[in-house]
Amino acid sequence: MFQKAGQIVHKENAVQAIVVADTFDDEFLPISEEMPHALLPVLNRPLIDYTLEFLSLGGIEETFLFCCTHVDAVKRHINKCIKNGEGWTLTMKVNVIVSESCRSFGDCLRDLDAKGLLRGEFVLLEPGTVSNVQLLPLLRKHNNITKNDKGAAMTLILQESGIGGIGRCPHEELLVAANSNNRVLFHKKLGKTKDRKIAFPLEIFLENPSVSLLHNLKDTHIAICSASVLPLFSDNFDFQTKDDFVRGLLMNEEILGSTVYCHILKGNQYGGSITNWRMYQAISYELRNKWIHPLMSSTKRNRKLKNDVYVGDGTKISESAGLKNAVLGTDVILGKNVKIENSFVFSNTKIEDDVVITHSIIGEHCTVKSKSKITAGSILGNGCVVENDTFVENSLVVAKKPENYNNHPEDLAYTWNFCMIQFSTPRL
After folding, report:
1. pLDDT of 1
2. Domain with 390 in it
3. Residues 102 and 120 sit within 8 Å (Cβ to Cβ)
4. How many domains is the chain partitioned into structurally?
5. C-alpha distances in Å from residue 426, one per residue of 49, 158, 166
6. Is 426 a domain residue?
7. What CATH number is attached to the domain comprising 390?
8. 271 and 217 in one domain?
9. Which residues form the EIF2B subunit epsilon/gamma LbH domain (predicted)?
């Protein structure tokens, strides 16, 4: 008899984690309309599998997977993993928590607080987290911090990362000021601001004999939390994201009586999160080049070809096709003279003769007909049909007819809107 997703199975004194499965944004449109973020294929393996494997290897014994959308699909996948005896099922229980009324990361944590499922300190993961970090030493370190600072609410897990590195997202550029005990004094995401000057509160320099300003970091989207974190979210409804939480605690430290610390990963320790398509490309690249050992794609799911190409089972490639830095799903068919570079083609898709695809993502069950060109960060949603000799550039394309669309009613694919997807050519 195996545990089913949705059945809450408690273990006394278990090391616990929370994984919020939904992103609550539009970063993964149009794919996310048909496919949950948790099941996004990463080297032909669902993204959530990497997260659960990491938690299990890291020492977690009980995980609460919080879902708001595509709930049935996620439950089916978890049940399938349990039935098939995936590695993480041997050491860790996964409880799927469902609330379709939540509209933000903060709402999910408030819901969990109301349910009273967490006991003591826990690990908190934002959506799409992939890592090889051992979590038990980090939990012990946070526990030691709380012995000296009763108000310590959270330890942010950050990683050293040079500017311009493939795994560092420009939208999440981070600046942190910390004292000699790694207590966070200032925390700001710089990626989406146009400010060329940063204003620091003067008191952080007056009240601390030593302050480090750190910009060589990236957010791993992993946090070690005290039991006070969930009640703090419940008491402050303006905390909608983890960044809101950190900013709120820093701005109101005297009122809330809570502090935030940071721990910086170095060496072979890795943490990252697939928060947008650029990070999808980056983490896929790092996984297939074994930079996140021991996490890696299953050899049962992929064949590795030359030019950094990974191909799923059942995929047929013509001898004249040219592939470079690409990942193809299962049962993909490539016609003659197809050129694919720096792109991802999901499962059950057909690419006809003389098609060129560069720096783009093609969803499942798509057909791209002869002599078409898909380029410059374009994304085709599941089930799209691109007609012969079509040029698609820097666009999102969907199969479902948008509202108020009156032109060419016979079309089988529709340009939905323009996007600014940044794909980078990996540098070794």
Report:
1. 34
2. 304-418
3. no
4. 2
5. 24, 22, 6
6. no
7. 2.160.10.10
8. yes
9. 299-390
Q: Are residues 157 and 230 in the same domain?
A: yes
Please name which of 424, 304, 363, 32 lies closest in space to residue 351, comparing C-alpha atoms. 363
Q: What is the pTM of this model?
A: 0.90
In a domain, 311, yes or no: yes
Determine the Cα–Cα distance for residues 77 and 5; give it in Å rounded to an integer.
Answer: 9
- Domain end point (choices 288, 315, 334): 288
Q: Residue 214 domain-assigned? A: yes
Whether 40 is in a domain gets the answer: yes
Q: Is the dihedral of CA 85, 86, 91, 96 positive or negative?
A: negative
* Burial (CB count <10 Å: 0-12, 13-18, 19+), residue 242: buried
Q: Are residues 170 and 78 in the same domain?
A: yes
**CA atoms of 353 and 350, how far apart (whole Å):** 10
**373 with 409, same domain?**
yes
Residue 408 C-alpha from the chain's centroid = 37
Question: Do 173 and 112 belong to one domain?
Answer: yes
- β-bridge mates for residue 160, sequence order: 217
CA–CA distance, 12 with 272 (Å, rounded to integer): 30
The tokens of 206 are what? 């007056």
Identify which of 419, 127, 176 has the alpha carbon closest to the alpha carbon of residue 280: 127
Query: Residues 291-335: pLDDT tens digits?
Result: 888 876 555 567 888 888 999 999 999 999 999 999 999 999 999
* Token output for 96: 């799927």
The pair of structure tokens assigned to 406 is 């009156």
Q: Give, in order, the Cα–Cα distances in Å from 24 to each of 10, 20, 65, 92, 239.
A: 28, 10, 15, 27, 14
* Beta carbons of 6 and 96 less than 8 angstroms apart: yes
Is residue 325 located within the same domain as residue 227?
Answer: no
pLDDT tens per residue across span 225-245: 999 999 999 999 999 999 999
